[in-house]
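Researcher: Next entry: N-methylhydantoinase A (Neorhizobium galegae bv. orientalis str. HAMBI 540).
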Amino acid sequence: MTKLAFDTGGTFTDFALLDDKGDLHLHKVLSTPRNPAEAVVQGVSELLEKFADVISIENLQVLGATTVVTNAVLERKGVETGFVTTDGFQDMLRIRNEGRYDLYDLNIKYPDPLVTRSNSYGARERIAADGSVMTELKEETVREIAGRLKEKGIRSVAVCLLHAYKYPQHEQRVAALIREEDPDIFVSLSSEVCPEMREFDRASTTVVNAYTRPQMAGHVAHLQREFAARGIDRQVLWMTSSGGLVPSRRAAELPVRLIESGPAAGAVAAAEFGRTAGEDSVLSFDMGGTTAKLCLIPNGEPNVGTDLEVAHYQRFRKGSGFPLKIQSIQMIEIGAGGGSIAAKNPLGLLDVGPHSAGAMPGPAAYQRGGTQPTVTDADILLGYMGTESFVGGSFKVSKDAAREAMTKLADSLDVSVERCAWGIHDLVNESMSKAAAMHATDLGVDPRSLPMVAFGGAGPVHAYGIARKLGISRIICPTGAGVSSAIGLLIAPVAVDLSASHPMPLEAWDVDAMNRLLDDLAAQGAEVVSAAGVPKETIANRYTVDMRHVGQGHEITIVLPDRSLPEEAFLTELRNAFFKLYRELFGRTVAAPVEVITWRLRASGEKDQVTRPHETVTADARKGSRQVYFQELGTFTDTAVYDHYKLPVGHEVKGPAIVEQRESTAVVGPSGVFHVDAHGNLVVNIH
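Model: Predicted structure:
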């Protein structure tokens, strides 16, 4: 099947086209932040026109990753949203929970809720934790709330009633009543968005879904219309935060699950690139125009967590943002990308980020109105990125404009322009190496033992410096590094992640209840995955459970044993798996009863392979040379520049060198030796 993938980033929108012959074509256009769909339509149209002779439109599948949901939350540009909960709990979004991200800050602050207090309503009802109805739903109170929402012109509402994760009947009736009063309103139910325990986390997740749903639904519908006008009738498949693809309808209904779609696609690609290079476990390093993402990939698969947090009040401080109970690939994100702005802080020192020049106006070198120096400007001045070969030469940048912006900052710091540029580059490397070391250490891994897969427009530029700081001796820069997240979309399977909280102690195990619950999840999963065209008989189900000791506040995730085992053997295997992981995480075991809290399913189709053998060529791979700065040498030096695509397989070249692709540039310092392998990966060994 022909596939066309797009990944909307903060600065560029990337494309990867797998044509009828199996050849891979890559493309890149500037993003259009005001209307992200414009850049997508532009890039798709250009690819369809250029490769019309090798594309069967009727068999074309479009795949997408987007920042629409993320940006709507971070920039608070979602729709005005309503919130309906059990009467008496209207302040849930403000009270939050008992957690404090800084125990000693007496003036601790959190981001303002996405729903105002005046738009938070209480419905008269109450279902107890055991399912008994304490107060019947007073339908007149819901109709009154629906009338107020309609009067205010509110287009989307989140409904989160107590214990609805297990007993959703009142939520479902509330939704029906609201829709009777206003058929056009978007209603997000916590029992559908996040059927899990813990009221605040469930409410927070549902509110983010409601806040972004009209925007995402409009984005999806707009693209489907544009693609249909070009003869593409298949619905788009969208990347979720956990690394699976879902149909457009699912994406439009549950946009909260797409909040990390682009980075997730990059992690999927990094796992595949590591595999083709003969590495099972790698450290993924994805640096684009706005942010950098680091992800540990053990044994060929990224770690998937059950909690995420966004829109931190204090950047990157866990507990200071909106918690989301969704499954997502675990990674660390740093506000340092090519467009990150460098400035002098109040202490008179150099700072980089978190503010970014983005796509508009972009770095000063883009000559689109940007006047502040950025990481990209620094990399251009250091010779790491060529002005004539930027994005394959299709996008002209100005070294003079970069120097002019850098001069102002350098003068304020009383250093030379070159010293200022190196300071920016090295400061970014230092921040990312520290974050990578912390991420790996948290997971019990020595980062020095891992090869690094570097991609993104700026990833290969900074990989060498970061690797040296971490003690990493091997870097893998794949072909198409600048659009790797789009390539990840071509590889990723159609998959959906579902969950349901249903506490069950191991001492009071109910096999029938377990089977009913898991069979229901499997039926839901099959419905979603088969809707994307996957034959039901090929769908694979993977079950996990969140477990804890009775009375504890947090759970750990365990793979569920084979359900066909006898009950005693099943429970023994489950209990042993829990104690084994518990001991690995906390160094001890506890003599207390154990229970399952939440049941999870991942239903998925098969992964695709996107192989691109590197052709051995006889042409000279050296393009020329330019002056490049290397700290190891303490000066600028005349450095050879190579064309990645013309390097012969296996031929080793000693650094320093610059290796250029159309979408990215790799920097190899004096301690590096590099070659291209049979799959086109640029492999750098640091001695």
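Model: Note for the record: The mean pLDDT is 90.
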